[in-house]
Amino acid sequence: MTRQPLTTRQPLPTIYHGLDAAAVARLNSLTGQRSLNPGEYLFLQHTPAKSVYVLESGMLMMERSSSTGRRQVMAFMHPGNYIGITHNEHYDFTVSALAKSTVCEIPLKAFVVLQDEVPQLKENVRRIGGNILAHAFDQVFALGQKKAHERVCFLLKQLSDRLPQQRCHSVELIMTRQDIADYLGLTIETVSRAFSKLKQEGLIDVYSAHTIEIRDMAMIEELALAD
Amino acid sequence: MTRQPLTTRQPLPTIYHGLDAAAVARLNSLTGQRSLNPGEYLFLQHTPAKSVYVLESGMLMMERSSSTGRRQVMAFMHPGNYIGITHNEHYDFTVSALAKSTVCEIPLKAFVVLQDEVPQLKENVRRIGGNILAHAFDQVFALGQKKAHERVCFLLKQLSDRLPQQRCHSVELIMTRQDIADYLGLTIETVSRAFSKLKQEGLIDVYSAHTIEIRDMAMIEELALAD
DNA sequence: CGGGACCTTGAAACACCTCAAATATGGTGG
DNA sequence: CCACCATATTTGAGGTGTTTCAAGGTCCCG
Fold first, then answer.
1. Is residue B12 part of a domain?
2. H or E segment and range at residue B224
3. CB–CB of B214/B156 below 8 Å?
4. Is B174 exposed, middle or buried (0-12, 13-18, 19+ CB in 10 A)?
5. Best residue in A67, A121, A137 to probe B by mutation, most B CBs within 10 Å?
6. Per-residue pLDDT tens for B116-165?
7. Distance, in angstroms, between A218 CA and closest chain B CA?
8. How far apart, in whole angstroms, are the C-alpha atoms of residue A81 and residue B7?
């Protein structure tokens, strides 16, 4: 069996994929815009799930917290991402903005009705759910099986995959080290040391704490996949 | 906010939930039975996904392996569970039998067609997908944030929740310590020590390696939730 | 330029892992 | 039914990676 990513990923579907103009128009008629400043919450864990969202610009973070204050970041979200999948009447995670962001807000009730009338829309949501699940499984594998520096590579690869194809593999880390640590199940110090180690080994350059250049993508990928 | 499980769970839906007799009959007309002995594979990671399954009896395990041999167990599956959710044309995990098991095999193509004709069936699959996702998020939280003995409690709670409501909280661990370790992102020795520690603290009794009695369910739950 | 938040680095503690040996378990054939 | 065997589990000792605690440095914004 040839070397390959554990999960083969199609281009990420959006809820708009393959919709005709009429459907898009109907969808847009339901939606409202919302702006978020860094640190602001889109919604809170345990509050009623009355809307779903599509991220237009900026970056969001999805996290789950226990009452003891332990926090797990579940995902970092990029433009185009659909937000609000839940099997409850309540959100079971919090979503907040890492950067100035804008989202489309779609009332859940109306969205569900529209899905029944536009099968392609329902299909899109189904596919997105599948992608989210695949992402969650990747994360389970990473947290269960990978070492600290491999987990950091796992994140770097995820972020660089979101970038438009380009020669220079420069990655903007908009989130803080604490966010990264809580995403990877580590501490900020361990994350910091992992970056230092990768830098020292020549796999990356750290221009500033939030601007990383990947110098050896092949090696980063190998570590990311732990393959 | 009152103490509560991180994820509130409805009674687990099956694909049969709310179907009328005609729909069930049509579904059954598609399905074949299959028997598995312990250790036997239902299907392998990276093989074409041509069927989905419903576990009738026994216990299955879903796992993902990398080519270096690192293995992550994603789930243990109980009767009624639906198996084969994938967003690929290939399964991205292996499913094998822990005990003698029987499954219903449903050809994927025909199942998809039937879903279009029976909206309730499609709805059931959607709900199941949501449950699987919720389970995956729980696991991410556990692997990212919990200590070894808390992860073991997390598993004990998951298994005891599957049991019919009864006074004595006796849990059968059908899987090996290695399976448990690979599920929780630990080693067999650490799992074994965690059991010993819980036993010594009087939270459980270990009758044999595969038969555990939970003596202090409240405490186990507290550790499981890390709340 | 000053201050607060964020990040990095170091040293020591700790949890978990690795390696090794002893013990228990469960299945099989006598 | 029992003895035996292979396999699985437990336990111990020592090593490693990650965390914790602490200090110093850097960046960014007013």
1. no
2. helix B217-225
3. yes
4. middle
5. A137
6. 999 999 999 999 999 999 999 999 999 999 999 999 999 999 999 988 77
7. 17
8. 23
pLDDT tens digits along B41-96: 999 999 999 999 999 999 999 999 998 889 999 999 999 999 988 788 999 999 99
Most B-contacting residue of A113, A125, A145, A223 (CB-CB within 10 A), to test interface: A145
Q: Residue A180: which nucleotide is closest by CA–C1'? A: C7
Any idea how long chain B is?
A: 227
> How many structural domains are present in chain B?
2
Are A185 and B227 within 8 A, CB to CB? no
Range of the domain at A177: 147-225
Query: For residue B46, which amino acid is it?
Result: H
Of all residues in chain B, what percent carry a pLDDT higher than 70? 94
Q: Is the CB of B100 under 7 A from strand C?
A: no
The reply to whether residue A133 touches residue B85, judged by beta carbons under 8 angstroms, is yes
Q: Do A133 and B132 touch (CB under 8 A)?
A: yes
Question: What is the CATH classification number for the domain harbouring A46?
Answer: 2.60.120.10
Asked whether residue A69 is domain-assigned, the answer is yes
pLDDT at A9 over 60: no
Give the largest Cα separation in chain A, rounded: 56
Instruction: Tell me: pLDDT of B10 over 70.
Output: no
> How far does the CA of residue A185 sit from the closest CA of chain B (Å)?
4
Q: What is the pLDDT of residue B9?
A: 52
> Rounded to a whole number, what is the distance in Å from the CA of B137 to chain A's nearest CA?
7
